[in-house]
Model the fold of this input.
Amino acid sequence: MYKESIVNFKNKYLSPKLPLRKHHTEAPVDSHGMILYVEGVNKSFDGFKAINDLNLYIEEGELRCIIGPNGAGKSTMMDIITGKTRPDSGTAWFGQTCNLLEMDEPVIAKAGIGRKFQKPTVFENLTVDENLELAMKAPKTVLTTLFGKINSEQSDMRDHVLELTNLKDLRHRPGRVLSHGQKQWLEIAMLLMQKPKLLLVDEPVTGMTRQEMEKTGELLVSLSGSHSVIVVEHDMDFVRQIARKVTVLHQGHVLSEGTMDQVQSDPKVIEVYLGAE
Done:
């Protein structure tokens, strides 16, 4: 399915601080139409193989759920995509121009990959509005951060994100008074202010009420199309709510992939992960 030929396409986002790896300088021809192309990736830590010949292909505008037992390699996979961890071998491209294995974390974030960790990190003493203003994708100095005003376009974008993330009525409240679920939405909102093309969302509904889970599912589904979204989650009820395509990781490798019904009925998945479910 995935050809081995490559096109002559220079990577214009390489970090000058990192050495050029000749075998990674051109995007694979089969990565056309994909926002993320990960192939043959391996990573070991002190002899333990956390990622084992991982292949992952995400299309533009896709919502993908990734599940797997503890130790399946989900966090390491996200670390590699965002530049936090260097793989031992393999290929990873963001679109046709960004060779992720030649870029560091800040450059990858600037290129359009945003990551939300499991535990939300917001500015507790600032209002929701102020949190979003700080997160905007724009050069900042201490003075502009403290005293600068946003322009009308930025204001419109902030209002749109507030509406989208169910935070419009909370915009003047400080982060510390928000519920756990509302803080999760605020962190997603802060990511959206940076205009990412791909969002990596780690266990977004942990600790949420049922109502917050439903709203979070609606939010993530609404983001697909205009963004590509990868959701790593353990809550199977939530995955069923939002899943279009599900990837099951096991021992750092893709064990199964397809619709929720397809992976649930896969004997390999039943054996290692879903069990009686």
Q: What stands out?
A: The first strand starts at residue 34 and ends at 45. The chain has one domain: 22-274. The chain has ten helices and ten strands. Residues 1-24 have pLDDT under 50 and may be disordered.
